[in-house]
Amino acid sequence: MEKWVLYAIISMIFAGFTSVIAKLGLAGISSDLGLAVRTCFVFVLVLAFSALVVPRQEFGSITLHNVGWLALSGVTTAISWVFYYKALKDGEVSTVALIDKGSFVVAVFLAWFILREQITLRVVAGCVLIVAGLFIVSRK
What was the pLDDT predicted at 138? Predict the structure, then answer.
């Protein structure tokens, strides 16, 4: 197995825990406050992790191009998190998490359109199955 696949699997597992743990943490508080508290922990942990594993000389290689695109990514992440937490506060974790994972379909389209990545039959089939799953799980 390639290393990036293992990383993706680990990410998937922790993301699954994240939604359930967040739902527990939102009891009695607003989704906005819950997100703010969570984000403080994310900020500190990511900074500490980077301080430990990123070679010092790499910090000098950051360009305005990197900063601009990563800042935009941060903005889109923040918007996603705000609405994810609002949905999580009132909705079922299983439904909210699946709808959120519909972002795969958006990412596939944007990767094709912007990055010129190839869309294979396997990827199209995955998109169709995810959209079908979204409809099945989100219907009451």
Answer: 80
Rounded distance, CA 17 to CA 10, Å?
11
Q: Report domain extents, the chain.
A: 3-101
pLDDT score recorded for residue 56:
92
Q: Is the pLDDT of residue 16 over 80?
A: yes
Burial 23-62 (b: 16+ CB within 10 A, else e): beebeeeebeebbeebeeeeeeeeeeeeeeeeeeeeeeee
d(CA 93, CA 99): 10
CB-CB contact of 22 with 85 (8 Å): yes
With a CB cutoff of 8 Å and minimum separation 6, the contacts of 112 are 118, 119
- State residue 139's pLDDT score: 79
d(CA 11, CA 115) in angstroms, rounded, equals 23
Burial class (CB in 10 A: 0-12, 13-18, 19+), 97: buried
**Phi and psi at residue 55, to the nearest 5°:** -60, 140
